Amino acid sequence: MKVLIEIEKKILLVWEWATKLWITERHMIRIKKRYQKLWERWIVHKLRWKKWNRSMDERTKETIKVILTEWSYEWFWPTYLKEEVFESRMGIKVSKETLRKIMVECGMRIPKEKKERKQRKLRKRKEMFGEMQQFDGSYHIWFGEEVRCLLLSVDDATSQITHAVFAKNEGKQCVFQFREEYFHKQGRPRSIYLDKFATYKVNNIPTAVFEPEVLTQFESVCRDLDVQIIHAHSAEAKGRVERANRTLQDRLVKDLKLEWITSIDEANEYLQKIYIPKHNKKFSVQALSDGNCHRTINQGEEDFYWVMSFREERTVKNDYTIQYKNQIIQLENVWEKTRPKLEVFVYERYDTWELKITNQWWKTLVHKKVEKRPAYIDPVKKEQEKKKREKKEKEWKKREKKRYGEAKERQRKFRVLQLVFFQKVSKSHQDLPKIELLKMAKKLASESLAWRWENHLASDSL
Known about the structure:
By secondary structure, this protein is an alpha+beta fold. It has 5 domains: 2-43; 58-105; 133-283, Ribonuclease H-like superfamily/Ribonuclease H (Nucleotidyltransferase, domain 5, 2-Layer Sandwich); 309-370, no CATH class; 401-462, no CATH class. Helices cover 45% and strands 14% of the residues. The protein is built from 14 helices and 11 strands. The protein has helices at 2-8, 14-20, 25-38, 58-70, 78-90, 96-105, 172-185, 205-210, 217-224, 239-258, 264-283, 301-307, 379-428, 434-454, and strands spanning 133-140, 148-155, 161-167, 191-194, 228-231, 309-315, 321-324, 327-332, 343-349, 355-358, 364-370. Helix 2 (14-20) packs across helix 3, helix 5 packs across helix 6 and helix 13 crosses helix 14 (434-454). It is elongated, with a radius of gyration of 42 Å. The termini are far apart.
C-alpha cells in the first residue's frame, strides 16, 4: 500500500519501485491499474466472499435440520446417520463432518473441548548419588523369540545403571526380588521415581480417592524402610530411565545376539558382569556433589527377611482360626497373646511362600494349617472352658504378682546388705577409693544373699 501511494503521488517512478521489489515493470503497472480500479479491496483475495464450489446449498441444509429435529435423531452417531438414514433411505449425500456440524448447530451434540497443553518445566538433576532412583520395566524381545521384561534402576544424579535384571513380568513377586537384591547391593535410597503401574500404586478410583491410606504391598515395604515413593504423571517425567531403556533396546539386544545368549540366566550374568560396567563407563556423568545418599538396612537379618514379604490383615474367629487364601489356619497356645475379634498380621514370603503370623504387639503366633474348621462346641462346654481359662489366667496373674513381689523384696534385702558391708569394708580398708569399696560391698552382699537363700535363712530382720 505504501508503494502504491508513493507511485500515485509521483514521489517515485514505477520502474524504480519495480527494481526495489524485484518484479518486472510490466507487472508493477498491472498492480497499479488494479489499485486504481478497486483501491484497498484489491489486497483481499477475489474468492474471499464467494461460496465454496462443493458447499451445501441452504435449502438442503434446512431440510436436514428439519429431519433431525422432527424425527429425534439426537441419539444417532453422525457416521451411522449418514450411511443408514440420509444416503440409503433418503438419497441425500452429505459428509460425516458436515452432518456433525449441523447436529452441533441444532444442539444435538456437544463438541469436544480442546485440551490445553500444559507447560512443563525442566527438572534439574539431583545433586548426590542415591538421592533418587528412577525405576521402570521395559517389555521387549531382548533375546530368543519371547518377550521379556527388563527391570531397570537408573540414578538421577549420575545416569548410572545401579541395578538391572531380566524377569518374566513387572508383577510384585519379580519387583520384590529386584528390590531385595538392590537393597543388599546398594542400600536404601532416599526416593524412587516410578510410574503408576498397579504394582506401585492403587489405581481403583473410589479406593484411591476416598481411602488414600490404602497402600500396595510395594508401598508398604518402602514405608517400613523409610524410602519415599514418587509417582510420575507422564513417561517424559522419568526421562532418564526411558532413554536408558531406548539405548539398551538398541545396544544390549545386539550384544546378546553377538554372544549367542538365549537363556535368562546367561543374560542376567552377562548384564551384571560385563554390560553394566561398560555402559556406566560410557554414558554416566559426574554428580554435582560427592558422596552417597544410600543408607544401610537398620533391621536385623531376620527382620529384613520378613519385611520383604507380602502382608495381610485377618480377624481371629471364635475358634482361634483365620482364613488366608482359601486355607484355614489354626492358632495354637494364643490365649495370652490374642483374643477373638482382634486383628492379626499374616506375612508371606514371595520366594519360599513361608508364613509368619503376629499379633498387634508384633509377637509371633504358633500356627498350623488344618483341612477343615474345628467341630461345633457345645455352649455349656464352651462356658466351662471359659471359666477354666479365666481361672488359669487368675492363677497366672497371681504367680506373676508373687514373683514380682519376691524379686522386689530380694532387691531390697540386697541393698540393705550392700549398705552394711560397705560400712564394714570402709572401716577396714580406709586407703582404698570409694569405687573399689562399692565393688567389694556389692560382691559380698550378693554372696551373702545367695548363701541365705540356699539355706532358707533370708531373715525378715533385714
